[in-house]
Amino acid sequence: MRGRKFASQQDIERHIANGFGAGAGASYVPWLRVQDVPSIGRSHKIQGVKIDRIHHLLSDLERSYFLVCEFSEDVVDIREQYPLLPTEHAKAIATSIDVRYPRYPRTTLPYVMTTDFLLTVKDLNGNFRSVARTVKYRSDLVGKGSKRTLEKLEIEKRVWQSQGVDWKIVTDEFFTRDLIKNLGLIRRYSKLPRDLMKVPLHSNFIDCLENSREYSWTLATCLRKIASLLSISYVDAQAIFFYLVWNKVLKIDLAGAPLQLTGPVPHFEVFQNLVQFSSKENMS
Fold it and tell me: Has this prediction a pTM greater than 0.85?
């Protein structure tokens, strides 16, 4: 799919009229898509497991933060590449702090600035609120060449502050490589085939897993033995284990070490009541 043109105010108005940067949940359309942005790094189009749509992520760092947001129980909606519209408001803020407002390359057209993530989160009281998050490599915020980046971030921060929305920068120091690798692995098992979605099966699986604590098995060996005891395939046992971890029925340290089938069974806690969890899943 071809990228869109940003050469005139009419182009911007047409994109707004076509719904870019609008909507919520599965109906949200990012202001920028992968094909709209020439990238010197890696970009990603990922089918969401929390929100049923394709997410457009313009860097590996955005992908990393996206995985964390999908895994978080507090995040209920993820809107990436969210536009700071109208541009007049952002331009006025830039003028007030004596910062040059960005323009599209080879034009005099004011740029539609975006925030990497606008999240809807649920607080401890069950209330919903929006928070804005920009992801940056720490190296881009310090040293030579960072001045212009910091100027644009100051515009972005003040736009959200003027709307009463919490805004923060998330850097690569926020998460470990192991966390992102592990989330990428277990995310594939966020849902199971219907024949594996049975509370008694999961309960028996956890009982077997609990009984394995006294043995020095690898995770693969443990899952093979559980598969034999429950008369399911090894592949199904593996899927159930990762599913229970992704859905936080089993709690393990995902940030401290890579989750490997050839490694030892990780320390785990049974964190949720299976019946309550199953009821929650059926409602979603």
Answer: yes
User: Which residue range(s) make up the domain with 267?
Assistant: 188-283
Are 32 and 69 in the same domain?
yes
Q: Are strands 269-270 and 250-251 parallel, antiparallel or unpaired?
A: antiparallel
Whether the CB-CB separation of 57 and 46 falls below 8 Å is answered with yes
Question: What tokens were used for 87?
Answer: 């541009």
CB atoms near residue 283 (< 10 Å):
6
Question: Which residue's entry shows tokens 């720490």?
Answer: 138
CA 29/CA 43 separation, integer angstroms:
17
Rama region for 23: left / alpha / beta (φ>0; ψ in -120 to 50; rest)? left
Domain membership flag for residue 270: yes
284 near 276, Cβ under 8 Å? no
The string of pLDDT tens digits covering residues 149-173 is: 999 999 999 999 999 999 999 999 9
3-class SS at 234? helix
* Residue that has been written with the tokens 């120091």 in this structure: 173
DSSP track, 84-108: ---HHHHHHHHHHTT-PPPB-TTS-
CA–CA dist 114, 158 (Å, integer): 13
